[in-house]
Amino acid sequence: MVQNNDQSHSPIVNTENDKSQEQVRTSVVDSQNNNVTKDNPNLKQSNDMKNDNNKNEKSVSSKNFNEQNSMDFDDLLPYVGEFGIYQKILFILMIPFAFFVAWVYFTQIFITLVPENYWCNIPELENLTVEQRLALAIPPAGKYDNPGAIGYSQCSMYNINFTKILINSNTIPVANSSWPIQKCLYGWEYNLTETPYQSISTELNWVCDDAALPAIAQSIFFIGAIFGGLLFGWIADRYGRIPALVGSNLMGFIAGVTTAFAQNYWQFVVCRFFLGFAFDNCFTMMYILVLEYVGPKWRTFVANMSIALFFTFAACILPWIAYYLGDWKMTTIAVSTPLILSLATPWLVPESARWLVSQGHVDRAIDILKKFERINKTHVPDSIYKDFKDSCNQERESEQQNKSYSVIHLFKYSRLRKIVIILIVIWMIISLVFDGHVRNVDNLGLNIFITFTIASATELPADTLLTLLLDRWGRRWLAFSSMTISGIFSLWACVVSNNIYAATLAIIGRFFINISYNIGLQYAAELIPTVVRAQGMSLIHIMGYISSIISPFIVYLAVVSPILPLLLLGIFAVVGGSLALFLPETLDQELPQTLQDGEDFGKNQRIWDVPCLAVKDTDEKKDSDFMKIQRSQSIRSSGRPSTRGEVLRSSMIQRASIRSRRNSFKTPAIQTVRL
How many angstroms separate the CA atoms of 573 and 523, rounded? Predict the structure, then answer.
């Protein structure tokens, strides 16, 4: 049996009278403002902003009244089961999609590997040993090689008739340093000792003058990710989350398998571009969809563990799949073919109930919830579903009001504009530094398979530590400290000559930027006002992709100097961490709903305020603990970007978290009898 003990109702007549009085007052104020602005045109812009804010506040005020007796989606979850059998099944079903996004993101590293040692191929000398060929035909590193290169040249050879020299010599001669030098004419030979297979880079000789081609291809992959986010975001809003999830995975399957048959650079680039469409989307839809159906107190666990366990494990085994198969084409096919399993998704995963509600299909959403009820062996009275249906209709009306706002409104308020710009810059830096650390493992001078595995494994302790500290230390100082420490260790690695020590320091830098990455979008989701949160998050997310386009070229700067990538990544991280101090703290704070809320948010805070050092009285502590739970379990879980760049696809999650926090003390007592 389920009992609802909340039977309070607010008098509608009083609300209507208040509304009439408010309309009269507004009419008088508007008339006065018009007279003033005629005499003083300079006040027009200020009054326009006030009128926008008044409109915003009236909408929220009306919404607050409607919500006093509303039943939110999160309020309904305890009745059907917050983490029952069905939710556990969905959690397990996240595993393949976490694998897919990890492999889509990281695979290019291992199919474009170039061994550290290679030299010009000379057909006339094929019968000689490697040492004899090098001694006779390859000059020391010089003008055709990367700056600072030592040892034998990788991009040049002596310009002489080697056949004639061999005929005229009784022994194998040694090169004369006065011989003329030219670029390689017949391709290259590669030392495959550490990289025991041919990659597409070695097959098509993307070295020397063409060494930047893999970096360009990776940047084009991120350009494809921008287009993919727009395309599948539109599909998700128009046709549902399941079609977008299946479509993005099928795109990844087709583009990934087709990559194995690329015969030249342009074919490869086209495949990478369309593979980028699948990046993020092949997991994000499933990630958010599952979180929608998990109760608030379980969302932190599901959000973190799906990344810390599934994504991390997939990243750690990828190098060894490539190593074991020993063929870049087979590797591409092996990690792309499983994406076709997404075709089974419509039969295994329910459509987003929140999306169905947003489209007016409340009955279909209730049918899905009844399926949860049946599998979880719980019972929900029809009266609860009726209250939920009525609340959904009210929510749709509120949604229509919020459609009058766009991301442009974020830049109409001076203080809010500064906050948004700082958030954009910080997220761009985090995206750049993280992706730079991911791809720089090849420049650390150690076995890339081992180094990549260890660096990827840092995601697990990073997620665990973040879970323990985020709601104690707060966002601002944790973002500052994690980014700054990452930058310090990256810079430290630049001055260490020992490869093992340098790699260790770089991996520690990767560990702390993992923490920063996982804070980034949540922090932004909490600072951007509710009425434009989804659009604002999309803007920040896209800007992160744009900065990721640059990261492959920062890693490529290792051809100039091996320390340059880590040097730049370290500087960027320190700058980004410092910028975080100029943002207001959101821990234990009521999150902004209107644009004016966003403008005023944190005005009373000081830069040195640290939540964990603040002294609170008992009542304050109770309120802050409750707000902490609601925010960390609703906002954080729905907006967490650990898949390396998720968009908050469903603004319903964000609104629900705000409303649930306001109505929490009126939540009815629930008694559930297992059937």
Answer: 17
